[in-house]
Amino acid sequence: MAPAIHVGPEPPLEYLVEAVKQGGGEITSLADAEAVVWAGSPEELPALPNGIKWVQLQSAGIEPWIERIRDTPEVQWTSAVGAYAMQVAELALALLLAGTRGIHRYARATTWAPEDERVLEGSKVAIIGAGGIGKELIRLLEPHDVEIVAVTRSGRDGTLPVDRLPEVWGDADHFVLCAPSTDDTTHLVGAEQLAQMQPHSWIVNIARGSLIDDDALVAALNDDAIGGAALDVTDPEPLPDGHPLWTCPNALITPHVANPPNTMARDLAKRVRENVRRYVGGEELLAPVSPEQGY
Prior knowledge:
The protein is of the alpha/beta class.
């Protein structure tokens, strides 16, 4: 018998309804469900009935959900980690290339003034957080003849463990932040880390704004202590009009567009369909959330 799955909030998104059906589930009300696919906010989700065994979220980051998740240890929660990796990694690469090749400067120029720019080729790129996005970025970087050092929490698969991160700041040429937002990663990059970077270093953040101390970053940019910063996420977000980052000539800012809505819908449907199929078959679900680790 097909598992009863509720899709919310009301009215449910049709592409998620279809994904549930294609995965082998049956659409039902929340009261009668054993699983939930939720495309809304934590505030919109009512108290879960006792029979709920699994909740699928639409986002990769689960910071707004963490207390709710910790309060329901009997429920298996899954996020969308990895579902949007390709498009986010694509923007990360675009931002890194734009910074290293001086495109940020030329896009603002009003006169013909070529400079002797550096190139990405031959540099060392540190990827902080080598989950789905980080792994995809590593793949995209392969044709560019760069040396890659990847840092993960545990040092799995030949990566550096997080306790060796301090040695990376002064060693790499450029940095891409792909780590989740947790208590441990808040202001992962501050004045101390920025001071160790090289004068040509670019830092790209496509993870969460909280990973960087923006006050320290503005000071480093204004002092030309680093090459620049390319940010798709900021803290606060949206970045307020008049914030100093807007006027830093060596800052490149995009308004959290790494995961555009048209591809988000497509890839979320794929994730829901696959996880419903796994749930039906009693298999391990993709992207289970760890309440202890916070992602």
